[in-house]
Amino acid sequence: MATNIVPYEIAELIRRKKALYCRSADTKQWRRFSEFALPEATFTFVDALTPNIPMTEGGQCMSFSHRVAFLNYSEERNKDLQYIHSVGPGELYFVDGKDGKEVKAIWSVIFHVGDGEKTRGFHGTGAGYYHEVWVKVGDDWFIKSLRFERVYWKACESRYRSAVGARYLGREGLQLCVYAEKTSFPSCFPLPFMALLLPRANFSSKLCV
């Protein structure tokens, strides 16, 4: 029987703090990082194809030797971006030889990032794994080291506004219209077979092309 299983109370506390990590980053509440990361915590970001070499973004090597260095970079780099992280439940294990005072955690993550434009501009989707070590301080737990390994990244940029909408035409069904700023006029297509699937109202939503 495995002896490195983390008890529920400790695992739940670490999971809650990891959720707070994501929410604090997504909402740019950088000061809250002191609630879950040590001042000397290290942060490193790599790609799965080159796992031994930190990534470089905007001329910055993505390896930081303490919390303040990481937060200073993040606050400036991300000030005009919108993004969200979604992490899995995680794999948590006690680190051997640490008398139950260190926990290794591996979290899957999917993230989306884009600029402030709502219907055009940059958008990217990525995924990977956080490899972390959490250390016990008193009765609490904090990140000692974080290493993110990116396994997926896809980005695109649209220079033109676009939208998709539909109009209910009664017995004739629906008319789907796609508008692109590049063409300056909509393209419309009849969709009679969808008439019973959608409410009898005009509507529109954004479409990235």
Describe the model.
By secondary structure, the protein is mainly β. The protein folds into two domains: 8-158, Nuclear Transport Factor 2, Chain: A (Roll); 162-206, no CATH class. The chain is 14% helix and 50% strand. It is built from two helices and 14 strands; from the N terminus they run αβββββαβββββββββ. It has helices at 8-26, 67-77, and strands spanning 37-47, 50-54, 56-57, 60-61, 63-64, 82-87, 91-94, 102-114, 121-137, 140-158, 162-168, 174-180, 187-191, 203-206. Strands 1, 2, 5, 6, 7, 8, 9 and 10 form an eight-stranded mixed beta sheet that branches. A four-stranded antiparallel beta sheet has the order 13-12-11-14, with no helix packed on it. It starts with 7 loop residues before the first helix and ends with a strand. Mean pLDDT is 84; it is low at 191-209.
List the helices and strands and how they pair.
Layout: H1 8-26, E1 37-47, E2 50-54, E3 56-57, E4 60-61, E5 63-64, H2 67-77, E6 82-87, E7 91-94, E8 102-114, E9 121-137, E10 140-158, E11 162-168, E12 174-180, E13 187-191, E14 203-206
